[in-house]
Task: inverse folding
């Protein structure tokens, strides 16, 4: 009997000991790994795994290693909640997601409810790409942090650039039929109307999200409208296939996009032959000229074999580390408090700020165009020989937009 | 406007012919065996993935020949070792078998090629604009797709209507026992028909793969539309499936091209209604509801003419 107790105690110590040593910081990565969003979801996963490896190689955060848990949500809000619960059950106190504002709204709501019901077991939600403005306005939550510029910030910057291009006369809007696409279209109408009332909106299209496999009918419609420019917030296969159909039909317009740089986009643009006629708005890009970012891009490409679509993911993970070290704790409540009003030198240079009022990150924004590379631009995309070229930079101070968020703090 | 009509007609015809390639196999199988093959779109997907893989190994043209043969062989195996055994337990068992098979194929494809789209490109030989109409290019590959579909339609019709093989197949449809007594191997006829039906889906997959997206959920995305086509055309009727394919292809393409909404037809709602569900419905354009138009057609035809356009029996 006595011997048994000793053995059991010894076994427990060993088990407990190994469990303690292996205790990693688990981050649930909830994004599409199948279906129409899979191409971007898998790209995001590789990016986060690379970033985790990078931090782990330097000793992790407060001595603990990061582990990314890949969870496939099929771009479906309901499925995302199942996956979020799976992440929590697996011991994750942090989740990150980006593709789909409908998913983001569901997750933000889920995390908020979860944290009210389970004090002491709070979960933080890091959003790296869902840009519906409502997430940091009427639907804002203390537990949600967003590193990407919201859709209205991007549209503000994009329309400020378009305002000074006199050649733009007829604009066609085509967007995905869900919260984000609708906010892009509404913002574009409002802001273009205010800044360039002479511009005519000749088409305003909403199409089903990630379901269209052939955009030819839409391209025929754009062609018939006589538009000279198209504004779209499409992402994933919806931007790649849209550009591909345009290339096939030989549609010659200027494209003002949020995500033309995603998987398949650059290849299609090269095929259209639209040299520097496709624009993208991002928080950083390969040829930004900022040396640390370009060094990062080089090692990233060498190891992951894709270009860095998400400089914001770099900012997210590095700020997570900075905040945890500032709080000297990995307790989500303390990390959240440390993130508030945290200033941070972003990957592509310049200072960013995580605004306390709504948990929106403000950072410099770039408009770039895709085409033949200049001598000082080393990076092309998808082996096309073409790459992104700086067109305009908007400083952090000029990206600030007001918020209506009334945050409930714990 | 004329430009939009011409281009939309071309696009609609193309999509319609692709639907026909798929539904022809499905409808022939149904009329023979009385079983709705739920896995038919999965054979289409297999065709696309085999086409992709073989193109990488031996080039597009040999793949165009070989991939459908492979898919046909798989189809025959499914009939010989699966359906024939379940046949004695009735149609429900057969239906469930193909239903399960569809999921199994999807998972196997996802395991082998991953869940994201594969890089299946149009062959270089056909990667140029065939002609320019109203300053819009029409890709040669789409013309090729159209030509292949029409060719297969003609061959299929000829074989069924004009040859001895077609005669026996048609007889086996309605009087299997009589055909058996006349000394034909009905079991083998069924197997061959199932194989040919699957191979047709395979061809559709090989040629549609590069033009559309080749990924593991392509079967699930196209499957429901196929059932609309064969029910709309009349179960078991080949000409019916042909007409239904074209109608649905054209309707869906033209629906996208139209901007009309209830609001544009009857004027905006009273502003006092404010933003509500009602104003949402009022302002939805035809283009936005384009994806559900075929299903609406399905419901209407089932109410008005349950046997479909050219069907002969009410099932």
Result:
């Amino acid at each position: 009997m006595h011997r048994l107790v000793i053995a059991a105690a010894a076994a427990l110590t060993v088990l407990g000991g190994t469990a303690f040593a292996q205790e990693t910081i688990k981050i649930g990565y909830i994004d599409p790994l199948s279906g129409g969003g899979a191409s971007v979801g898998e790209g995001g996963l590789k990016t986060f795994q690379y970033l985790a490896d990078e931090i782990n190689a330097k000793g992790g955060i407060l001595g603990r290693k990061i582990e990314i848990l890949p969870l496939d949500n099929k771009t479906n809000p309901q499925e995302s909640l199942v996956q979020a619960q799976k992440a929590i059950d697996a011991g994750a106190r942090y989740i990150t997601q980006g593709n789909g504002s409908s998913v983001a709204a569901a997750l933000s709501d889920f995390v908020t409810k979860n944290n009210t019901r389970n004090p002491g077991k709070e979960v933080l939600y890091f959003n790296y790409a869902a840009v519906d403005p409502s997430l940091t306005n009427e639907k804002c939550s203390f537990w949600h942090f967003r590193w990407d510029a919201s859709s209205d910030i991007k549209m503000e910057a994009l329309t400020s650039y378009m305002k000074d291009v006199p050649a733009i006369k007829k604009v066609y809007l085509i967007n995905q039929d869900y919260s984000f696409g609708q906010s892009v279209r509404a913002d574009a109408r409002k802001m273009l109307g205010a800044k360039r009332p002479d511009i005519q909106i000749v088409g305003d299209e909403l199409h089903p999200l990630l379901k269209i496999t052939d955009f030819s009918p839409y391209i025929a419609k754009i062609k018939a409208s006589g538009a000279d420019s198209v504004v779209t917030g499409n992402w994933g296969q919806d931007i790649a296939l849209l550009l591909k159909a345009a290339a096939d039909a030989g549609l010659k317009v200027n494209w003002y996009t949020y995500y033309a740089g995603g998987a398949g986009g650059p290849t299609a643009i090269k095929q259209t032959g639209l040299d520097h006629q496709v624009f993208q708005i991002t928080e950083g890009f390969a040829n930004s000229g900022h040396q640390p970012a370009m060094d990062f891009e080089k090692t990233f490409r060498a190891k992951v074999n894709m270009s860095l679509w998400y400089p914001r993911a770099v900012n997210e993970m590095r700020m997570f580390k900075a905040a945890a070290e500032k709080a000297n704790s990995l307790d989500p409540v303390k990390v959240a408090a440390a993130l508030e009003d945290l200033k941070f030198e972003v990957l592509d240079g310049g200072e960013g700020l995580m605004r306390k009022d709504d948990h929106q990150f403000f950072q410099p924004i770039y408009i770039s165009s895709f085409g033949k590379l200049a001598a000082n631009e080393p990076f092309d995309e998808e082996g096309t020989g073409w790459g992104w070229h700086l067109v305009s930079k908007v400083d952090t101070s000029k990206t600030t937009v007001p918020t209506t968020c009334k945050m409930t703090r714990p | 406007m004329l430009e939009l009509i011409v281009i939309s007609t071309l696009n609609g015809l193309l999509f319609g012919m692709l639907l026909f390639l798929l539904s022809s196999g499905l409808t022939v199988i149904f009329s023979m065996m009385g079983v709705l093959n739920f896995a038919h779109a999965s054979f289409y997907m297999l065709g696309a993935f085999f086409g992709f893989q073989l193109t990488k190994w031996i080039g597009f043209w040999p793949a165009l020949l070989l991939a459908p043969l492979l898919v046909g062989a798989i189809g025959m195996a499914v009939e010989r070792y699966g359906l024939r055994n379940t046949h004695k337990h009735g149609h429900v068992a057969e239906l469930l078998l193909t239903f399960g098979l569809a999921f199994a194929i999807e998972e196997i494809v996802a395991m082998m090629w991953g869940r994201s789209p594969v890089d299946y490109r149009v062959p270089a030989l056909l990667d140029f604009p065939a002609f320019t109409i109203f300053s819009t290019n029409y890709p040669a590959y789409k013309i090729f797709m159209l030509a292949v579909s029409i060719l297969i339609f003609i061959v299929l019709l000829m074989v069924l209507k004009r040859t001895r093989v077609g005669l026996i197949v048609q007889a086996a449809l309605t009087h299997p026992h009589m055909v058996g007594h006349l000394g034909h191997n009905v079991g083998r006829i069924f197997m061959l028909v199932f194989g040919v039906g699957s191979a047709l889906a395979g061809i559709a997959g090989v040629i549609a793969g590069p033009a559309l997206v080749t990924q593991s959920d392509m079967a699930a995305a196209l499957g429901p539309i196929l059932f609309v086509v064969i029910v709309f055309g009349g179960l078991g009727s080949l000409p019916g499936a042909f007409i239904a394919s074209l109608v649905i292809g054209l309707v869906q393409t033209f629906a996208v091209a139209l901007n009309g909404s209830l609001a544009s037809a009857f004027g905006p709602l009273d502003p006092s209604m404010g933003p509500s569900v009602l104003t949402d419905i009022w302002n939805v354009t035809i283009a936005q509801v384009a994806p559900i138009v075929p299903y609406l057609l399905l419901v209407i035809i089932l109410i008005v003419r349950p046997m479909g356009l050219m069907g002969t029996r009410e099932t």
Observations:
- The first strand of chain B starts at residue 129 and ends at 133.
- The first helix of chain B runs from residue 2 to 33.
